[in-house]
Amino acid sequence: MLGPKSTTELLGTAILVFTIQVAVSSGSDLAPLAIGGILISIVYAGGPISGAHYNPAISLAVALGGGLEKKETLAYMLSQVVGGILGGLLGGVVGGFNALAAGEDASTLQALLAELILAFILCFVVLCVATNPDAKDNHYYGLAIGLVVAAGAVAVGPVSGGAFNPAVALGLSLSDGFANLLYVILVAVANLLGGAVAAGCFKLVAPAGEEAPAAGEAASLYQSVK
Question: What DSSP assignment string belongs to 93-155?
């Protein structure tokens, strides 16, 4: 039986991937705004319960920073992948299936580099606004996180497909019958690598000698609730 935190991660990821699937299927130029907007909302909604990662790359980055134990990290990641598949399936039924793919004018190397860089930026921003003791009690963390995804979708979406999230990549692929599965796996690896690099860079710039805030506080929503 899933606990409250894993359930929140599953539901939040499903909502995110559903929105991506439907928004992209619509063909609207405002799709990045819809995706960023829903992410802002569900980050604020799920933050006090699970930390609202909705992204295995973020969970990995937080775990490397000491905010999640190994067992809990694996539970989060599994819940996120299941939620991604569920959201992709529902979104496909409602709006049509769209598998993740590199842009027609982009090489695989360009696409994977774009995914790595944007996953790095997303995870680094999350760590800075939600786990930095100097950002305690802020109310802008959700906006900062959602805006990264919206900006990334506009900037490199045409290059890589704009996942920045292994659960999104897998959800979109599996919902469309394993389309572009090799590319999706490479994207997932690039996203996780971006998260790991973000954790390393955050340790270089985070306040020395201070521990991250206890979970459940406004500035530490991306750590486990003790």
Answer: HHH--------TTS-HHHHHHHHHHHHHHHHHHHHHHHS-GGGTT-S-HHHHHHHHHHHHHHH
Instruction: Supply the pLDDT for residue 21.
Output: 96
Note whether residue 42 is domain-resident.
Answer: yes
**Is residue 225, in this structure, part of any structural domain at all?**
no
**What b/e readout covers 98-131, taking b as 16+ CB neighbours within 10 angstroms?**
bbbbbbeebeeeebbbbbbbbbbbbbbbbbbbbb
- Going from the first residue of the chain to its last (226 residues), give the mean pLDDT of each consecutive group of 10, the final group possibly shorter: 91 98 95 98 96 97 92 97 97 93 95 98 96 87 97 97 97 86 96 98 78 40 40
- Per the domain annotation, does 72 fall within a domain? yes
> How high is the pLDDT of residue 132?
87
Give the Å distances, CA to CA, from 184 to 7, 18, 161, 162.
Answer: 25, 17, 10, 11
Structural domain total, the chain:
1
CATH of the domain at 12: 1.20.1080.10
From 178, 168, 212, select the one nearest 61 (Cα to Cα).
212
pTM (2 decimals)?
Answer: 0.92
Count other C-beta atoms under 10 Å from residue 169's C-beta.
Answer: 33
Distance separating alpha carbons of residues 90 and 202, to the nearest angstrom: 36
Q: What are phi and psi of 159, to 5 degrees?
A: -90, -50
